[in-house]
Design a protein that fits this description.
305 residues, Farnesyl Diphosphate Synthase, mainly alpha
């Protein structure tokens, strides 16, 4: 495969740039969100609270890391990075609602429906989703083909065949014992679809991407998306509320189908390592240009929050 050149020095550590990328996407989100003082004030305040109250920003980081690998300008990457994080914020507000997971804490702070009220939380989430697509549609640095490609990718990732469908399966699976295949499919939709879109969005911004490039990036993204969710499940058992920013043990309390609940911690850790190895193998042909993605993949599997 012919690879794009790498813009960063081969020995540069992506972790040295993550803080700058997080600041970058948060500035973009701040600019895209309505100001809190603009009517309806309470709705806009809730939208900003949901989107800007911390977080790992792992999905935007995956966008930027893939973009570095494929030599795409940060200005173009800002668009999917911002849109995907707004979609993620919308999904978290809905996940926390009493009708869903009924959580009181998110990122160490009261969830949106606790900070404001349930109706405002629903409306804030409802407004964040179309805002994400407005960011893409109005981006002056993208051409029409890139806009169409990103809208198609992200809308599928967050719809009934992606994140929303995965949440529906999750709710329907409470109290049931799923097979390995069923559990992997649920996680692949609920969490993996948007993580995959984060990686694949960068592929939407290169002209005539090679089939091998797309195939390798897609498999990498699916592997790391599933590993991300399994690690989340592990932290729900072994983590500390003060560190992970949300109550531990909530999955067990709601009798949710998770990897640790079904297979135990040891097997869950083994599966995480197996997925990490598979993801790394997909990056072999990219050489040092893929070091940012390797760094993030390791962080996903080893994180403590």
């Amino acid at each position: 495969m012919n690879r794009q050149r790498q813009t960063e020095p081969e020995n540069a550590d992506f972790s040295d740039r993550t803080h700058a990328y997080v600041e970058r996407v948060e500035q973009c989100m701040d600019g895209a969100l309505p100001t809190a003082g603009l009517p309806p004030e309470r709705l806009h305040e809730a939208m900003r609270y949901a989107a800007l109250s911390g977080g790992k920003r792992m999905r935007p980081l995956l966008v930027y890391a893939t973009g570095e690998c494929l030599d795409i300008s940060p200005e173009k990457l800002d668009i999917p990075a911002t849109a995907i994080e707004l979609i993620h914020a919308f999904s978290l507000v809905h996940d926390d609602l009493p009708a869903m997971d009924d959580d009181d804490l998110r990122r160490g702070q009261p969830t949106v429906h606790r900070k404001f009220d349930e109706a405002t939380a629903i409306l804030a989430a409802d407004a964040l989703q179309p805002l994400a697509f407005q960011v893409i549609a109005t981006a002056e640095c993208l051409d029409a083909a890139e806009v169409r490609s990103l809208v198609s990718l992200i809308s599928q990732a967050c719809g009934s065949l992606g994140m929303t469908g995965g949440q529906a399966i999750d709710l329907a699976s409470e109290g049931r014992k799923l097979s390995v295949e069923e559990l992997a499919r649920m996680h692949g939709l609920k969490t993996g679809a948007l993580i995959s879109a984060s990686v694949m969005s960068a592929c939407c911004l290169i002209r005539n991407p090679e089939v091998d490039t797309q195939r390798a990036m897609h498999q990498f993204s699916r592997d790391i998306g599933l590993a991300f969710q399994i690690r989340d499940d592990i932290l729900d058992v072994l983590g500390e509320t003060e560190i992970i920013g949300k109550p531990v043990g909530s999955d067990q309390a709601q009798n949710k189908a998770t990897w640790p609940a079904m297979f135990g911690i040891e097997e869950s850790n083994r599966r995480c390592r197996e997925l990490l190895d598979s993801a790394m193998n997909q990056l072999e042909d990219f050489g040092p240009a893929a070091n940012p993605l390797r760094s993030l993949a390791s962080l996903i599997v080893e994180r403590v929050r």
